[in-house]
Design goal:
By secondary structure, this protein is an all-alpha fold. 73% of the residues lie in helices and 0% in strands. This is Addiction module protein.
């Protein structure tokens, strides 16, 4: 697959398309670490517990609840 992609890239003349490809390839290389504070970690832990316990709400139910608050 890499060889096929490389061959196709080598034949490209469209500079705009080459720039897009370069952007995609560069975005894959960079890994940005996110540092969470203790409050954020606690909230994520609570969310994971909610998911494990089935404490979920569907998107449609959430929208209905939101519309009640907006009235």
């Amino acid at each position: 697959m890499k060889s096929r992609i490389t061959e196709r890239i080598m034949l490209l003349q469209d500079e705009d398309l080459l720039e897009v490809i370069e952007t995609i390839l560069n975005s894959d290389v960079t890994e940005e670490r996110v540092h969470l504070n203790s409050y954020q970690i606690k909230m994520l832990e609570m969310s994971e517990k909610d998911i494990a316990n089935g404490n979920l709400i569907s998107e449609s139910d959430l929208r209905k609840d939101d519309s009640k608050w907006m009235d």
